[in-house]
Amino acid sequence: VQLQASGGGLVQPGRSLRLSCTASGFTLREYSIGWFRQAPGKEREGISCISERFGKTWTRDSVKGRFTISSDTAKNTVYLQMNNLKPEDTAVYFCATPAVRGCTVVNGDLSRHGMHYWGKGTLVTVSS
Predict the structure, then answer these.
(1) Tens of pLDDT along 3-36?
(2) Which of 23, 34, 126, 128 has its CA 20 to 30 A from that of 2?
């Protein structure tokens, strides 16, 4: 199982980026994929998750309306479209899978402890 995240970069506030997470070793219908981010000095937090098998998504309240998760099963790739980016969105973004079909949302949060495989992160810097 491998996850490859890409698409990060330096962007000005208010602009957009789309992150990609390409999976190998499993299909999106077999396992869900989640996006996490970790800002300097902060804990890693769950951002969004998609379960193709159950046709469900979960997105953190603080980014709802700006971030959208989607997938392309033909490419076995999950995307995170990030619009109206803010300096506080600056972080390393990771994709991960819990190696189960559903999103592991615990107490209203996407559990990083439930993730079984992680990709290397991609850095997003929002700055003018």
Answers:
(1) 999 999 999 999 999 999 999 999 999 999 999 9
(2) 126
Beta bridge partners of 109: 106
- Residues with Cβ within 8 Å of 62's Cβ and at least 6 positions away in sequence, in order, are none
Nearest to 80 by CA among 53, 106, 110, 50: 50
- Contact (CB, 8 A) for 68 and 49: no
Phi/psi of residue 61, nearest 5 degrees: -55, -40
Query: What is the share, in percent, of the chain residues with pLDDT greater than 70?
Result: 100
In this structure, what DSSP letter does residue 29 have? T
Q: How far is Cα 33 from Cα 42, in angstroms, rounded to an integer? A: 22
Token pair for 74: 């033909």
